[in-house]
Every structure is written in C-alpha cells, then in structure tokens.
Amino acid sequence: MNFTLKIWRQKDAKSKGAFESYKVENISADTSFLEMLDILNNNLIHEGKEPVAFDHDCREGICGMCSLYINGNPHGPAQGATTCQLYMRRFHDGDVITVEPWRSAAFPVIKDCMVDRSAFDKIIAAGGYTSVRTGQAQDANAILISKDHADEAMDCATCIGCGACVAACKNGSAMLFVSSKVSQFALLPQGRPEAARRAKNMIAKMEELGFGNCTNTRACEAECPKNESIANIARLNREYIKAKLAD
C-alpha cells in the first residue's frame, strides 16, 4: 500500500508550523500506524532529513501517549482504540492522510506532533487521589461495595488521560477526563471523605489551566479510546454543586 502523508512540522513551541507532504510506499496492511511512521522516519534519516517527532511509549493501548489527530479524528478513524492500535488496513491504497498534534491552548506544541500534556498531571495533583491513611490493606469483604458501583468505578478508572476528549471538543474542555477521575473515587466509600475538596479543587485547576467549558456535544464520548461516558460529567456537576452548597 502507498500513502501520502501530510504531517504537521513545527520546530518548537515558539516557531510557526506548517504541513509537509511525504510519500511512503510498500506498506503492509498489517502495519500499525506508528510502525508506518517509524518507516517514514527511517527513510528521512537515511536521506539526511529531520525525522518527525511524535509521542509513543507502550504501543499496547495502555498509556495514551500516542496522541495524534488523524484525518480529523483523535487517534484516527478506529473507535475505542488509540493510535498505536490503528492499522493501515483502515485506509485505502493511495489515501492522503493528514496527521496533526492535539489542538488546545492547554496542550502547547513541543515539536511537530508532540504536545505538553502536563496540565493533566496538575489537575490530578490538585485532588485526584485519596490522602486518608488506611493502614494495612483491608480484607476484600471488609468494606461493602455494591457490584454496580464497583464496576462503574472500574470503568471510570480506565481513563488513560490521553487528551483525546480535549482534542475532540470544540471548546477544548477537559470535563470528561476530570469527571472520570472524580467519579472513580466518588463511587467508592474510600473516596467520600475528600469528595467535596476533590471536586472543587480539580475543577478550579482545570479552569486555571485554560481548558474550555462543556457544551454537551458528546464529541469527547465519541472519540474516547476507552469509551468513557458523559454520565461522568453529570456526576461531576452534582459533586461540585453539593460541595458549593455545603460551603
């Protein structure tokens, strides 16, 4: 399979970027998207050119580092999958594929298709944890938790913080990410003592870092590689309102 790649090239955060076109040829349909970029970079290096900078780590759909905006979709056209889980059989021979970094004021470009997502780390540091000393690990049946709540909390915890929700949102909102992290604690008794502080602090930090507001277009839910639900956003709003009323 042969492809034309239109890739965003940008030297650093302060430089002006632009798209550059590259040809890749004889790509197997079973090649992953990142492996295809590896082939491109190998060709560029042999030609004495600067390779394309892009994020990657586990390449197993776990870490969310592979944050590429492909043909207008975060992580590409495959639903419920990260970029590293995208294979070239999703495209047609001769296709022109546009590759960009996440577009958000809160995710400044570092170089080419790499962005600084440390804003998410700052939101987690503002309250996405439990600080209560629990001592030795409890027996599994010591704290009764309904299966429905346990399953839903686990679903929320599968959020990998990749930022696809922000990239998909027309306002660059981080509400799906924040609500998933708040919900995984709000649903469990271990997270209730700090629930009010958590909701207030994480939302305040999100707003401080320049993320936009949620307008319920559900683009975040549609593009999330882990299929997080916007029901989490409703829960976050309830947690926040309760916390403010308590004040």
What Rg do the Cα atoms give? 20 Å
Structural class: alpha+beta
Number of strands: 7
CATH topology of the largest domain: Fumarate Reductase Iron-sulfur Protein, Chain B, domain 2
Indicate the mean pLDDT: 94
Report the span from N to C terminus.
Answer: 61 Å
CATH top level label of the largest domain: Mainly Alpha
CATH superfamily of the largest domain: Alpha-helical ferredoxin
Strand order of the largest sheet: 2-1-5-3-4
What amount of the residues lies in strands?
A: 5-15%
Shape: elongated
* Helix/strand order: EEHEEEEEHHHHHHH
Tally of helical runs: 8
Helical content class = 25-40%
Count of the separate structural domains: 2
Keywords, separated by commas or semicolons:
two-stranded antiparallel sheet; Ubiquitin-like (UB roll); 5-stranded mixed beta sheet; Fumarate Reductase Iron-sulfur Protein, Chain B, domain 2; 7 strands; 247 residues; 8 helices
Q: What this model shows, in words?
A:
Helix 2 packs antiparallel against helix 6, helix 5 packs across helix 8 and helix 6 (195-208) packs across helix 8. The mean pLDDT is 94. This protein has helices spanning 33-46, 118-127, 147-157, 164-168, 175-186, 195-208, 219-223, 231-246, and strands spanning 3-9, 18-24, 69-70, 73-74, 96-100, 109-111, 114-115. The protein folds into two domains: 3-110, Beta-grasp domain (Ubiquitin-like (UB roll)), CATH 3.10.20.30; 118-246, Fumarate Reductase Iron-sulfur Protein, Chain B, domain 2. The chain is an alpha+beta fold. The strands form two sheets. It has a five-stranded mixed sheet. It has a two-stranded antiparallel ribbon with strand order 6-7.
